[in-house]
């Protein structure tokens, strides 16, 4: 499993009923269900991701996560996961509010547009940044709403969540510690947040 | 995976008496019914431990002949594109069973069968049925075949209702339920359409209170054909009718401007109606549409329902089609949400297809791939 998914799994904890928004091939849910005694449901838009989930035996709905999220009854899940997906949604604030409606806990991972390498690309080269975390050229990126960690933390507060834990990641998706973690908005390639209502 | 290979080849419908006077079928209403004979077909080979058995439930007008052929390979069973060697329900690995439902008219006991009390066909003296009763007869057949726990139950429309009812009523009997283009509760519009179809049959002067089986007696074929025409409109989508017929005139370039069949779509519906009466019983149409109208497995006391759903040990695949307006995706979503809220594992997919409700019978690659993947996983978890 990708190192960042390890962190997500740890923040989700054991025995939780999890909704994974944009669950991809179902790796995380499979891990949560089989290794951590959880239950869960994924929402995935792509055909390939959907079929991979079916092949793993992970319950999944195919569809647009923003639409599916709106249709979900509240209080069905213990924890809702949004892994590397928020920046690709059309209405990130609405997604965060809806997440709060369906579950009392959230885990969100996202790339940091404030990372020094991206800043440098724009400042020194005058080009839209391309990195390992954000590999697409500007004209074909699925990312609609990129933000820095500081931006995200402000939105977390505005949508009524509390960021209980933050794990800052390097470009390989491994947790940063010490000074680097404290200068997260400059040195972190991304971060994972545990949110509580 | 669709249509790979030659199919299951020639098959024969078999018959078995499952309930007798000494051991009658007790219906949901408490009424007793005997004898109950069932027509069924099987494809593939049953594993020693019965772990590879999949039960196919048919829809309103289906029958036991789901796959293979009865002598003419050009006239295969109604779900032949799904069932066969290398197909989504792969008969090289699975043992597939399909039976005509209780109340049917294709070999299983129904209103056209002889009532032992009178020596004449039941007609409307046949008892009212529920989906549970249809399922109970399937279960008796499964036991008779020596299968302890099915790998899965699959069906579209009324067939999906049977799969749903089976899985929620009988934990321990199936690993997976595949519920396609179905509903857990007909809408007022659905009931309205079936009410008009029944009226068409019952108002036919030859209906005769359901007693139309005598030698030389006229059958309510006009009413039954009309019911089929109405039903058929609801099985197609506006787009598929536009595509298939448009406003074209039958066998002519210019409209004839009369009240006879003029547009192609009229001709098509008439053909559907006429060919239907040759193979279907008007009373079965009445009984089975009523079974669908009253189906409400999530109704009743919510506490009792939650308790019942907490015991469900099957996983579900729910499939809908975006052009289906008979049982729209909303019907499937209700099933998904109810099961999901009860923590039953459900996978859901809306397939994009233009053919309306009838899409579930079509060889749509993404649709069949979804079923095949789900069944593969069930087999994998059985350790097969």
Q: How would you sum up this structure, described in words?
A:
With 197 residues, chain A is of the alpha/beta class. In chain A, 39% of the residues lie in helices and 21% in strands. Chain A has helices at 3-12, 27-35, 47-56, 65-71, 92-102, 116-125, 149-158, 178-182, 184-187; strands at residues 17-21, 39-44, 60-62, 79-83, 105-111, 162-169, 190-196. The longest helix of chain A has 11 residues, at 92-102. The model of chain A has no long low-confidence stretch (mean pLDDT 94). The model of chain B has no long low-confidence stretch (mean pLDDT 95). The radius of gyration of chain B is 21 Å and the shape is globular. Chain B contains ten helices and 14 strands. Chain B is of the alpha/beta class and 384 residues long. Chain B has two domains: 14-185 and 295-382, Alpha/Beta hydrolase fold, catalytic domain (Rossmann fold); 190-289, Rna Polymerase Sigma Factor, Chain: A (Orthogonal Bundle).
Summarize the structure.
Chain A is of the alpha/beta class and 197 residues long. Chain A has a single domain, classed as Rossmann fold (3-Layer(aba) Sandwich), CATH 3.40.50. Chain A is built from nine helices and seven strands.
Features:
heterodimer, A: 197 residues, alpha/beta, Rossmann fold, 7-stranded mixed beta sheet, 9 helices, B: 384 residues, Rna Polymerase Sigma Factor, Chain: A, 2 domains, 8-stranded mixed beta sheet, two-stranded antiparallel sheet, 10 helices, 34% helix
């Amino acid at each position: 499993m990708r190192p960042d998914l390890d962190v997500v799994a740890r923040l989700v904890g054991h025995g939780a009923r999890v909704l994974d928004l944009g669950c991809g091939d179902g790796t995380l849910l499979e891990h949560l269900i089989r290794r951590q005694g959880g239950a869960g449901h994924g929402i995935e838009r792509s055909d390939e991701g959907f079929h991979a989930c079916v092949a793993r035996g992970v319950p999944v709905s195919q569809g647009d996560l923003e639409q599916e999220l709106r249709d979900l009854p509240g209080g069905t899940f213990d924890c809702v996961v949004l892994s590397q997906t928020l920046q690709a949604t059309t209405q990130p604030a609405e997604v965060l509010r809806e997440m709060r409606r369906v579950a009392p806990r959230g885990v969100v991972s996202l790339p940091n547009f404030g990372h020094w390498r991206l800043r440098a690309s724009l400042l020194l080269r005058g080009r839209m940044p391309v990195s390992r975390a954000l590999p697409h050229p500007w004209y074909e990126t699925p990312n609609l709403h990129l933000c820095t960690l500081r931006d995200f933390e402000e939105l977390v507060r505005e949508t009524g969540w509390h960021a209980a834990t933050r794990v800052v990641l390097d470009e390989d998706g491994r947790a940063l510690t010490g000074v680097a973690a404290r200068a997260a908005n400059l040195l972190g390639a991304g971060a994972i947040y545990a949110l509580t209502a | 995976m669709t249509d790979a290979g030659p199919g299951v080849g020639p098959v024969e419908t078999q018959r078995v008496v499952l309930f007798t006077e000494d051991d009658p079928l007790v219906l949901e209403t408490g009424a007793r019914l005997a004898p109950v004979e069932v027509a069924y077909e099987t494809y593939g080979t049953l594993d020693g431990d019965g772990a590879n058995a999949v039960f196919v439930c048919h829809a309103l007008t289906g029958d036991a002949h789901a796959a293979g052929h009865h002598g003419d390979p050009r006239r295969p069973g109604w779900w032949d594109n799904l069932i066969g060697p290398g197909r989504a329900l792969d008969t090289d690995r699975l043992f597939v069973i399909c039976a005509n439902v209780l109340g049917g008219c294709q070999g299983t006991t129904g209103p056209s069968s002889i009532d032992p009390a009178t020596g004449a066909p039941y007609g409307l003296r046949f008892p009212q049925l529920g989906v549970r009763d249809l399922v109970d007869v399937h279960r008796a057949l499964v036991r008779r075949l020596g299968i302890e726990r099915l790998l899965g139950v699959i069906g579209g429309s009324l067939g999906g209702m049977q799969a749903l009812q089976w899985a929620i009523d009988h934990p321990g009997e199936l690993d997976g339920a595949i519920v396609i283009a179905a509903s857990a509760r007909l809408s007022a519009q659905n009931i309205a359409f079936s009410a008009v179809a029944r009226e068409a049959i019952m108002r036919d002067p030859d209906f005769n209170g359901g007693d139309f089986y005598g030698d030389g007696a006229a059958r309510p074929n006009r009413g039954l054909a009309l019911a089929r025409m109405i039903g058929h409109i609801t099985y197609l989508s506006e787009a598929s009718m536009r595509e298939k017929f448009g406003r074209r005139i039958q066998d002519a370039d210019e409209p004839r401007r009369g009240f006879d069949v003029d547009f192609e779509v009229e001709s098509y519906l008439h053909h559907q109606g006429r060919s239907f009466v040759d193979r279907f019983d008007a009373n079965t149409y009445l009984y089975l549409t009523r079974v669908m109208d009253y189906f409400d497995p999530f109704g009743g006391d919510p506490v009792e329902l939650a308790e019942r759903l907490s015991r469900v040990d099957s996983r579900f695949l729910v499939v809908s089609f975006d052009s289906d307006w008979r049982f729209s995706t909303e019907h499937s979503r209700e099933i998904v949400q109810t099961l999901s809220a009860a923590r039953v594992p459900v996978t859901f997919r809306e397939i994009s297809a233009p053919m309306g409700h009838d899409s579930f019978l079509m060889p749509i690659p993404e649709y069949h791939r979804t079923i095949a993947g789900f069944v593969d996983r069930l087999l994998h978890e059985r350790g097969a």
